Amino acid sequence: MANLEKSGHLDAVVTTNVDYLHEIAGNTKVADIWYSFNQNYCTKCGHEFSIDILNQAGVPYCPICGGLISPGPTYHHIGTSKPAIQNAIDWMDQADMVIVIGSNGYYDRINDNVPLVQINPASTEFDRKAMLNIRANADDVLNNYVN
Ligand SMILES: [Zn+2]
């Protein structure tokens, strides 16, 4: 995915993954709609910290007030990030094409006028919307045909 962005073929990533791996791989425009481990919050004062706060030895505590630090997905109880949701909606509305990879169809907010390609070995709710269904694992498709 990062290679697609670097080559100018991918504008943005919308994900329910919370692992921050898209950003670590090099994607710069990512909507982490369930938050990510790069969004960490003090349980006492609410201050937000990047993933670097987790590099402390032992349990991470807030350098401002001493409160316990909680990763965003846990702090928000797997809630949705309103700014990330808005980015996802805006980006998908402006997209020339949307590629749905490995999703089970839970997040179904894609403009009907935007061509949809799905990469998934299984049948999903996106089958009927997709102009192309590639029945394969994302790793196989992206590693063999994109790089
Ligand atoms: Zn604090």
TrEMBL record:
A Pfam family annotated for this UniProt entry: SIR2
Mind listing the UniProt keywords for this protein, alphabetically? Answer: Metal-binding, NAD, Transferase, Zinc
Task: Please provide, alphabetically and separated by semicolons, the GO molecular function terms listed in this UniProt record.
Answer: histone deacetylase activity, NAD-dependent; metal ion binding; NAD+ binding
Name the coiled-coil region(s).
none
Q: What class of enzyme is it?
A: transferase
Q: Where does Zn(2+) bind?
A: C42, C45, C62, C65
User: Which InterPro entries does its entry note?
Assistant: DHS-like_NAD/FAD-binding_dom, NAD-dep_sirtuin_deacylases, Sirtuin, Ssirtuin_cat_dom
Tell me where in this chain the Deacetylase sirtuin-type domain is found.
1-147
Please verify whether the record's keywords include Cytoplasm: no
What EC number(s) are associated with this protein in UniProt?
A: 2.3.1.286
**PANTHER family xref list:** NAD-DEPENDENT PROTEIN DEACYLASE SIRTUIN-5, MITOCHONDRIAL-RELATED
Name assigned to this protein: protein acetyllysine N-acetyltransferase
